[in-house]
Amino acid sequence: MKDENEDRPWTMPLPQFGKRYYSLGRSASYAAAARGDIPVIRVGGKLLGLPRVAEAQLGQIEQTSRADNLPQAAARHMLDQAGLASAAARTRRGGGTA
């Protein structure tokens, strides 16, 4: 009997990895890797995504989201990271954007 883990790759090219696991384009995948936002390794001059690590991380997020209402927390985090949290708060209060 074949183990289901045997079919999953250990690594894949970064652009393909970013698109499949994070819905990122090529440039965004490389930028996320440079920031350390997605799991990658460098082999020679090539960056490779780590699908098994990503699946484990995303699985942990899914488990936590049920208990902690992660979608709202994740949205706030993404706004904070993009520097848009204050603009979103102004919009909710009716202050508009600057």
Shape: flat
- Following the backbone from N to C, one meets helices and strands in this order, namely EHHEEHHH
What count of structural domains?
1
Strand tally is 3
Average predicted local confidence, pLDDT: 78
Structural class: mainly alpha
Major β-sheet strand ordering: 1-3-2
- Major sheet details: 3 strands, antiparallel
Distance between the termini: 61 Å
Low-confidence stretches: none
State which percent range the strand residues make up. 5-15%
State the main characteristics.
98 residues, mainly alpha, 3 strands, 10% strand, flat
Please write out the topology:
Layout: E1 12-13, H1 14-22, H2 26-35, E2 40-43, E3 46-49, H3 51-68, H4 70-82, H5 85-93
Antiparallel strand pairs: 1-3, 2-3
Would you write up a description of this structure?
There is one protein chain. This protein is mainly alpha-helical and 98 residues long. The protein has one domain. The chain is 60% helix and 10% strand. The protein has 5 helices and 3 strands; from the N terminus they run βααββααα. It has helices at 14-22, 26-35, 51-68, 70-82, 85-93, and strands at residues 12-13, 40-43, 46-49. A 3-stranded antiparallel β-sheet has the order 1-3-2, with helices on one face. Strand 2 and strand 3 (46-49) form a beta hairpin. It is flat. The mean pLDDT is 78.
